[in-house]
Amino acid sequence: MADLLSGIRVVDFTQYLAGPTVTRLMAELGADVVKVELAPGGDPARLMPIQVEGRSGFYVQQNRGKRSLCVDWDDPRGIEVVRRLLARADVVVENFGPGVMEKRGITYDAVRADNPAVIMASISAFGRTGSYANRVGYDMIAQAFSGMMHMAGERNGPPTWVGMGVGDVNAGVHALAAVAIALFHRLRTGEGQSIDISMVDALFHMHELNVHAVGLTGGRMQPTRTGRHSGVDAPIGVFKGPQGWIVMLALARQWPRVPEAIGRPDLLTDPRFGSSRERARHREELAAIIEGWLAGFATDEEALAVLEAHRIPCAPVLSPAQTVEHPYFRERGAIRTVPDPVLGEITIPGFPFRFSASPDRPELVAPLLGEHNTAILEDLGYDRAVVGGLEADGVLRTADR
After folding, report:
1. Which residues are catalytic?
2. All domains of the chain, ordered by start, with CATH?
3. What is the pTM of this model?
4. pLDDT digits (tens, 9 = 90+) for 21-64
5. What tens digit of pLDDT does each residue of 122-157 get?
């Protein structure tokens, strides 16, 4: 059975994380992804930790299933290879800094002149338009500028960044959705288009109430970090359990179940907890009561079982190391062990989408640098002697990592 994106040809000018997120998901869905890596070293992610024998686990996770073309695009012969590749592409994805693509003449208008139906997605920190378009940025910059970092951390402490690439990956998944919609639009109209994804925009889109709260209260409410307990309602937050930390989220409809679960029916008539606003005001007092109850258990698992029996949303706070061993992630395929020619095997997160029409994911391998140079150029009409000459002149590069 052909996979969902079988036959879609992607030219991938991405590096590090935000852009490669788009193309790795497309590769998993069956697209033919040619990763254009710049000579001599290719994607800088190849240098990221953790490395074994010079092979980066970060690079492997983000680039499985792609074909690597390592080319010097500052050589006229190299840019000609790139242009031939672009003329056949369905989708082009890039996340270079401002001006990099333009310097080589690889703009949407230039690509569209030879390939009118092409879809070109650009991912950047601040987008390709507006007064900030020329600023460079990475995940942490986007977390700061989008207001996300302002909301994370202790109430009276400094803002804190989320310790994983949420800005990069979130922008990548937004871009994947946009590309899929653009492909559907092209199917109906024959029309290609350009897509502009900003990491800041994508993170800003995640504010569920912080933005409208300012306007609706005339500025009286200034959303800010509240530490490990929500300032909107309670009990919502992170509580000390007998062994580790437990998250509980009980909104107004779940609140009556909490006093029942912890054996404190008197809390239902306590004026401190009579409304969402009052519970939020007295959240520290309520947290102390709940943590006192949790301390009576021998294990977190026992306490969670009681909360779950009363249908109170809750979960343990798992470390990444604990997730690797947890049965949920194995049962869902949310974690998997995949092959690699250098690393042997590597454990990575699973594919996040579930399609009934395509239930099984292919076994993919991340490319060595320039591994597919010859095959890609022969597909473009180059004969082997010409390819050999380009390799001898350093226009094409390869490496065993």
Report:
1. 168
2. 9-205+328-392 (3.40.50.10540), 236-240+245-316 (3.30.1540.10)
3. 0.94
4. 999 999 999 999 999 999 999 999 999 999 999 999 999 999 99
5. 999 999 999 999 999 999 999 999 999 999 999 999
